[in-house]
Amino acid sequence: MCGIVGYIGPREATQFLLEGLHRLEYRGYDSAGIAVTSTDNIKVRKKVGRVSELAGLLDEQPVAGHTGIGHTRWATHGAPSDTNSHPHTGGNGEIVLVHNGVIENYSSLRKQLQGLGYVFTTDTDTEAVAHLVAHHLEEQLKLEDELTEELCLRAVKLTLLKLKGTYGLAVLFRDIPDLIIAARNGSPLVLGVGKGEYFIASDASPLIGYTDQVVYLSDHEIAVLTPGKLDLMHRDTGSMAPSIHTLAQVSADIDLGDYEHYMLKEIYEQPQTMENALRGRLDDDEATAKLGGLNLSPQELRRVDRIVLTACGTSWHAGLVGEYLIEEFARIPVEVEYASELRYRNPPMSDRTMIFAITQSGETADTLAAMRECKRKGLPTLAICNVVGSSIAREAHGGVYLHAGPEIGVASTKAFTSQVTVLSLLALFFGRMRHLSYGAGQRFIRNLQEMPEKIHRALECHEAVKAVAERYASMNNFLYLGRHYNFPVALEGALKLKEISYIHAEGYPAAEMKHGPIALVDQQTPSVFIVPRSGIYSKVLSNLEEVKARGGPVIAIACEGDEKVAQLADDVIYIPEVEEYLQPLVCAIPLQLLSYHIALLRGCNVDRPRNLAKSVTVE
Ligand code: F6R
Questions:
Q1: Residue 414 in contact with residue 279, Cβ under 8 Å?
Q2: What is the H or E stretch that residue 167 is in?
Q3: Which fold has domain 3-100+167-253?
Q4: I need a labelling partner for 420 at 20 to 30 A (CA). Which of 36, 229, 282, 526 fits?
Q5: Which mutation among 266, 364, 419, 498 tests ligand 1's pocket best, with the greatest number of atoms within 8 A of CB?
Q6: What ranges make up the beta strands (E) of 273-332?
Q7: Pairing label, strands 42-48, 31-37
Q8: Which CATH superfamily is domain 458-609 in?
Q9: Tens of pLDDT, residues 559-604
């Protein structure tokens, strides 16, 4: 939510800033802006709309300079407008800054600053921060006769002490043009270390192709960047040595290649991402999974008598599949909690409860807060996470990475299947620590090994899905129905359709629909039934017939060669047959493609749906 970039070094700053904002645009696309310092002032260019609009403005009104900051916005305080766009100016232009996060006490700060004569021109919370830095700078200047880097740092530190809420900040100073001060609390910031140059970004994607050396800022850390020098410090403990990591990502990870949209590219990456999630984690000899990153001893792992999975959105749906898997194979009770609820609840948890935060980005504010709450209570808190170096990955006691590569389309696709894959590994792992037999473990492994190929085959339904999308794209209400392992898939299919095509869709357990939602069924409300062969196949077929009997159109997702379903449903999309507990992995594919094509047919922006942002870093 909101993306920040910064540059200091020998290059023209604008080139990196613009490219970086393009790469961070998935975090918010209500407006974009940059600020670049020159010898006597800071030039700001900002515009409501996409980064491409800002690029157009910069063509007309270019700015030159070697130090700059930029921002792409997902509006929280104040509607999207040119004025409310970042960067924001403090005082009489002495400082300019960009901010990601929410300042909770901004209205009291605003009143105090207005009382001191500061004039506010925007509706944002950020402007209060900008004026506060300017105010402290002025106060400090009364004590010293010369403006120095040290003085600017003091002004920023005094400001941070007064802020309540979350921030990733990058600040420019008009009268010291070769200086950026960056600070973090709750909103991610990564520093790129180049040769004689430094980069700032909300995540590592803007840095790819510029440098592979990165420093992840932690909460309450402050970075002072000058040409050729990086000083890092903690708010409370002072100066510290930067810990430099090497990025594994390469340009191909973030290029669109031959695809029209990131979402489609990411759907098609799933055979590969599933292989990545499994690589090195299947132990044939012991018939179990190898999950070294859990960082717990076998004794500690054996003590676990309850697992809580916490997440938001699609990751929460993956958690529901995980619940079914772990309870079936490991016989450990599992609860799946919305992180936004868990963070304020206080459910009883013993020291034998294990927490897993499931998150693609590793930055979702609610998931991070829920995880911290559990950590505070001394529980083993682990992460199932995609983004290496993200806040959740770093703060967890341990965990399992997805290795799915950057997910850029706002609608999550490959992360879902990778999360389910990792959760199935956990089910196998805990199962084999308890009562799951050697033979059952080996069968589980063989089935998992076949999955990348099965996903590959599931993608062959693409043309059939396209045809179905054309028939139903004009409808305004959809039901998604599935049972057992495919109930979470129904929820996920409905979410995909809602978020990218703005169609009302509800996911339900297929049998539960008789208790209310069946009243919605009419000729204009298609029901998507997920009905692959399983132990409850005939039960789901009965539910399907109940909908048909009431005149509702039915689209069925069924196993290859299923003639029975073909006779009942209006349209059938076939997927390869797999074991029941792995069906979510193949059944998700046609649903992802269906939402993609319906959204395209309705003229929606598939990769940048309205009102959404990829990484929800505000509460
Ligand atoms: C839906 C979607 C969101 C995310 C949710 C959690 O397609 O992308 O529902 O799943 O915001 O995000 P992460 O997994 O990054 O914590």
A1: no
A2: strand 167-173
A3: Glutamine Phosphoribosylpyrophosphate, subunit 1, domain 1 (3.60.20)
A4: 526
A5: 364
A6: 282-283, 288-289, 306-311
A7: antiparallel
A8: Glucose-6-phosphate isomerase like protein; domain 1 (3.40.50.10490)
A9: 999 999 999 999 999 999 999 999 999 999 999 999 999 999 999 9
